[in-house]
Specification:
mainly beta; Immunoglobulin-like; six-stranded antiparallel sheet; five-stranded antiparallel sheet; 16 strands; disordered N terminus
Length: 175
């Protein structure tokens, strides 16, 4: 057996490190490939989880935030298929920073992680089919302008192909 070159469909060249001969033992080869694309327009996906989000100030839903006034980003998850070990990622809009960070967890939440001005990840052991699950993140609008509100994503941690998300929205912060 001689050395063979093979090319994958993406143009990568694979070569053995040494020539193959009849004395070499069969060994398992583990390959892992990953690719990603940037979606310019993200559409809602609601297979196992239907996700919606809105902004609130003083307990009332609003389309535009008032600068300097405390706000909440509310993510609502309607479960169509029961999920275990679920992660809810709530991105923080660019013109805002975290408000008061809550330490108390409400069912089905078991842990909440605040990442540096980027997103909040909420972990749940199990999300049941009954009822609407509501997750709230406190915000402080700091800069006026128009910003993009990235989609909230809900996925099973060990089966990330089972996910739901809402669509991209626009956020205005008035002075």
């Amino acid at each position: 057996m001689g050395s063979r070159k093979s090319t994958s469909r993406h143009g990568f060249l694979l070569r053995p490190l040494r020539p193959l001969n009849s004395r070499s033992r069969a060994r398992a080869i583990f390959l892992h490939g990953l690719s990603g694309i940037l979606e310019q327009q993200s559409y809602a996906q609601s297979r196992p989880f239907a996700v919606s989000s809105h902004l609130e100030q003083a307990g009332e839903p609003v389309k535009a935030l008032q600068f300097g006034k405390a706000a909440q980003l509310v993510a609502e998850v309607d479960v169509k298929q029961e999920g275990q070990y679920v992660m809810i990622e709530i991105p923080i809009p660019a013109g805002c920073s975290y408000g008061e960070k809550s330490n108390g967890y409400r069912f089905p939440e078991v842990h909440r992680e605040y990442f540096a001005e980027k997103k909040v990840s909420i972990f749940a052991l199990k999300i049941c089919r009954w009822g609407n699950n509501r997750f709230v993140v406190n915000l402080e609008p700091r800069y006026s302008g128009t910003y993009t509100l990235n989609p909230v994503r809900v996925e099973e941690m060990y089966f990330p192909v089972l996910y739901g998300r809402n669509s991209v929205e626009t956020l205005k912060i008035r002075p």
